[in-house]
Structure formats: C-alpha cells, structure tokens
Amino acid sequence: MADKIRVKNVAKSFGTSRGALPVLEGIDFAVGDGDFVALVGPSGCGKTTLLNIIAGFERPDEGEVSIDGIPVTGPSPRGIVISQLGSVFPWLTVRQNVMFGLRGQPIAERRRLADHYAHLVGLEGFENAYPHELSGGMLKRVEVARALAPRPEILYMDEPLAALDALTRFRMRLELRRILAQERPTCLLVTHDVEEAIHLADRILILSARPARIEGIVDVPFPHPRKLSSPEAVQLKEDILRTLGA
Q1: Is 12 in a helix, a strand, or coil?
Q2: pLDDT tens per residue across span 89-101
C-alpha cells in the first residue's frame, strides 16, 4: 500500500525564557492510504504538536512531512481536524452547520450532502434542530458529519471524544468506527486513552515523554467490532501501558 502520509525525522522545539524546549525528536513513520493510526503517549509529550505539524498548522524545525509524496507547507482542504473543543456554531441548525463546510457548491447539492451526512451519523429527524437542543454526543455527531461532508482524504482527530461522559464516549467509538468504515478516509487520532486507541485504530504509535520519540509501533489485529475485555485486547493494553512506563 502506498504511503499517504510520510513523516521523516521530524523535530520541534519551542522557545522559552530558559531557552529552547525540545518537544519532538527524530519522529519517523508512515501511514498508508485508508489506514487508521492512533498516537498515544504521556500528557504533554507533544502529540498535538505532532498532529498540527502533519496537518500543516505548524512547521517542524527539522525533518519533513509529505502527503502523497508532496511536502506539507501549510493547511490543506484535503485534511480536516476534529478536536476536543466544540466547534459547532450555536446560531446554525444541524443542516446549516454541516452545509457550512460545503461553501462554493450549489445550494441544492449542499443541502443534499448535509442531509446525507446527518443521516449517516444518526441525526435523521434533527436536521432543523439547534445545538442547544442536542446532547453532547449529538453535538459530536454534528462535528463528524461536517468534517466528512467535504469528503476529506485525511481526518485529523485530536482527543475528539475527551469531553464526553464514559458511556457516551463508548457509544461514539462504535458509531465513529461504523461511519469511518463506510467513508474510508486516512485517519490520525491523538488520544490519552489506550483503550480508545485499541478500540478504533489499525496501528498504534507509542510516544515517549518529552522530547517525544517513537517508543514502539504496534498493530491491532483484532476484527471489528472489538471486545476490549478479550484476553488479547487486555494483553495488548498491558503491553502498551508497560511501554509507556505506567
């Protein structure tokens, strides 16, 4: 499978009053087209910084990131970010929120696509609802629908379910995997939750404490839907936590 994303020897530091603070060092990996890769590591190790570099929002001090062999020099509409911070516009309906990302297309096509993706994420019947009328899980579904409607090649997810309660988060994992199995974008997920990574990803990159290096790369060979209580999944979680030093 051809590399969709290639990260070559990326390093990044931030300036502080005490001098340079190294955050990433020698990060090198590839993501195949259509793969789902999760990044896990200690809090503050640079996971979000790495995601921002790959998405083009920050520049590395050293190394290079390329998409389909073309160096990343800035953000691109080929990739869309879903973060833990809510990004739903409170003054727009569900349909209007999803349509927002489709500007430039004919209004009838925008409406058709918005309704299609609202239905895909389980919001059929709520197209005219406003955000204040929706639960936290439903708001996250709106964000997913809006991100998918432009048909991005890459979906960058930075702790997208972190603000949800445990039960809603678990249900959203199942829904997210179902939805992404149909759409098949290349996915990069930043998460502090090892179980979430095992539940969703095809492969997990384990980062060290700052300055982050890749401590390990593990495949998740289990078919979907995954049972996290299976002996294999429990063992994989223990192995990852051991690598993280937990």
Answers
A1: strand
A2: 999 999 999 999 8
Is residue 49 a contact partner of residue 24, using CB atoms and an 8 Å limit? yes
Tell me: the pLDDT tens digits for 13-61? 998 888 888 999 999 999 999 999 999 999 989 999 999 999 999 999 9
Provide the 3-class DSSP secondary structure of residue 224. coil
Give 27's strand partners.
10
Task: Say if residues 41 and 203 touch (Cβ distance below 8 Å).
Answer: no
> What CA–CA distances, in Å, run from 75 to 52, 78, 143?
9, 9, 19
Whole-prediction pTM: 0.91
Q: What CATH number does domain 3-78+152-244 carry, 3.10.20.30, 3.40.640.10, 3.40.50.300, 3.90.1150.10? A: 3.40.50.300
Rounded Cα gap, residues 43 and 121, in angstroms: 30
Residue 1 has pLDDT above 70, yes or no: no
- Residue 115 CA to chain centroid, in angstroms? 23
Domain residue ranges in the chain? 3-78+152-244, 87-151
For residues 16 and 181, is the Cβ–Cβ distance under 8 A? no
> What is the distance between the alpha carbons of residues 122 and 175, in angstroms, rounded to a whole number?
9
Closest by CA to 122, choosing from 107, 102, 140, is 140
